[in-house]
Design a protein that fits this description.
The protein has 8 helices and 2 strands, in the order ααααααβαβα. The protein is α+β, with helices and mostly antiparallel strands. The chain starts with 10 loop residues before the first helix and ends with a helix.
């Protein structure tokens, strides 16, 4: 885990003595959520280590309560597995495919929202023209049906949250469409230099 902080101040404060950190707090606990909840089962607060950290910061700053503050931001890192961090790296699928099928050489991961697959095919075409490779597997896919992905997408107003007929919700070119329908799918093409394809008798 790690953290970073930025202090924004007005010109008036900037021309004076500047801003100072007058209170801080810190607690170290294990990453998994279940043990944290188990430890706080008999406590009056859920995740009491977060409360204790906040209390430390108030005490060091000489403040009595949260009423003395203009804003508060605290966080606790939990419920994330180390494997989840690896799985959500955009280049992870390319690496897994190269391992499974023993594919080596030129590799790129294109991330461009809904146009990533099309962009990847264009990038592969340009790579072939430059002579970076003879054959390239290119395309795109989406696997958004996961708790973390759905939670994030739910915040967008453009996402279809409710449709009278779910079977007819996906209408991308209809002016009365209810919004973007979250789904999964993919498409892959294999690009090859024409001379190489002709040499191996491809039709």
């Amino acid at each position: 885990d790690g953290a970073a902080g930025v202090v924004l101040v007005s010109d008036r404060v900037g021309r004076s003595d500047g801003a100072r950190i007058i209170g801080w707090g810190h607690r170290t606990v294990g990453l998994p959520l279940a043990p944290k909840l188990a430890r706080s089962a008999d406590d009056t607060h859920v995740l009491p280590h977060v409360r204790d950290t906040f209390a430390d910061a108030l005490g060091r700053a000489g403040l009595g309560s949260v009423d003395d503050l203009d804003a508060v931001e605290v966080h606790d890192c939990f419920a994330m597995s180390a494997y989840m961090a690896i799985a959500w790296i955009p280049s992870a699928p390319v690496g897994q495919l190269s391992i499974k099928y023993k594919i080596h050489g030129y590799a790129k991961t294109i991330v461009n929202d809904a146009a990533g697959g099309t962009d990847a095919i264009g990038a592969a075409y340009r790579a072939l023209r430059r002579g970076d490779a003879d054959v390239i597997i290119a395309g795109g896919f989406e696997a958004a049906i996961a708790e973390a992905a759905i939670a994030g997408l739910a915040a967008f107003e453009e996402i279809c949250h409710d449709a009278p007929d779910p079977a007819a919700a996906f209408r991308p070119f209809n002016a009365e469409r209810p919004g973007i329908v979250v789904g999964e799918g993919g498409g892959i093409v294999i690009l090859e230099e024409m001379e190489r394809a002709q040499a191996r008798g491809a039709k």
